Structure formats: structure tokens, C-alpha cells
Amino acid sequence: QVHMVESGGGLVQAGGSLRLSCAPSERTFSTYSMGWFRQAPGKEREFVARISWSTGIIYHADSVKGRFTISGDSAKNTAYLQMNSLNAEDAAVYYCAAKKSRYAAWDYWGQGTQVTVSS
User: Fold this and answer.
1) What residues form DSSP beta bridges with 94?
2) Which of 8, 22, 24, 91 has the fewest CB atoms inside 10 Å of its own CB, making it the most exposed?
3) What is the dihedral of CA 106, 112, 115, 116, to 10 degrees?
4) Burial per residue of 46-70, b for 16 or more beta-carbon CB atoms within 10 angstroms, e otherwise
5) What is the pLDDT along the chain (119 residues), one digit of tens a residue?
6) Contact status, residue 7 vs residue 20, Cβ threshold 8 Å
7) SS3 content of the chain, % helix, strand, coil (to 5)
8) Phi/psi zone of residue 89: left (φ > 0), alpha (ψ -120 to 50 degrees), beta?
9) What is the dihedral of CA 91, 30, 73, 46, to 10 degrees?
10) What is the dihedral of CA 43, 49, 54, 57, to 10 degrees?
11) Contact in structure between 106 and 49 (CB atoms under 8 Å)
12) What is the DSSP letter of 32?
């Protein structure tokens, strides 16, 4: 079963930056769209950003607009999440997900990578 593989999480000071990466476990696995979600302790998983390869459309949640940027390399089937000006509210496990078509569900998920923000 194909799954997503995240990397790049870690500990950062408030105001700092991190860059997350994500790719499918099988490099030849094609996707329509890739996205990032996050889940903080005691909270529900929430959408962060997504990118659609065929249209080039990107979308960010209001809570991260202006601070986070999703990008990707369609040739490498890899998505990135550049996170700047991190604060305590950004601390969470960040998950990468993918879908195979525009109206499909986010069926492919990674194990998550921890982002910790220290004050």
C-alpha cells in the first residue's frame, strides 16, 4: 500500500522557520494533489495547505496565510511546506496527504512529523 513519507520536522524557536518535505513511498505513484494537515494535542486534525499539479492551484488555510507556503516539484512528485514566523499555535504533528483525482478523498497519508515550537 502506497503511503506518504514526510520529513523536516523538529524543534524550533518561536519566530523561526522549518521546511517540511513529502513524497510517496513509491516514486512512480502519481497524484493529482498533495496537501498538508496538522493535529495538535487535544484538537482535531486541520487542513493547512494543498497544491494541485495539473492546475498549479495552491491554497492555504487562513491561519497560516502569509507565513506558510506550499510548493512542489511535479517531476519529483514531491511537495514542500515552508513555515516561517512559527509560533506556539503551530506546534503539532504535520501530516502529508495525497489524492488521485480532483474529487477523490485524501486517501493516502503519511505517519506525520512533529513540529515543536519553543518560546
Assistant:
1) 38, 113
2) 8
3) 130
4) ebbbbbbbeeeebebeeebeeebbb
5) 999 999 999 999 999 999 999 999 998 899 999 999 999 999 999 999 999 998 889 999 999 999 999 999 988 889 999 999 999 999 999 999 999 999 999 999 999 999 999 98
6) yes
7) 5, 50, 45
8) alpha
9) -20
10) 130
11) no
12) S
Q: Assign residue 48 a region (left: φ > 0; alpha: ψ between -120 and 50; beta: otherwise).
A: alpha
> In whole angstroms, what is the distance from residue 39 CA to residue 94 CA?
7
Q: And the C-alpha cell for 112? A: 506525520
Query: Which of 36, 29, 21 minimizes the C-alpha distance to 73?
Result: 21
3-class DSSP state of 48 = strand
Q: Which amino acid is at 113?
A: T
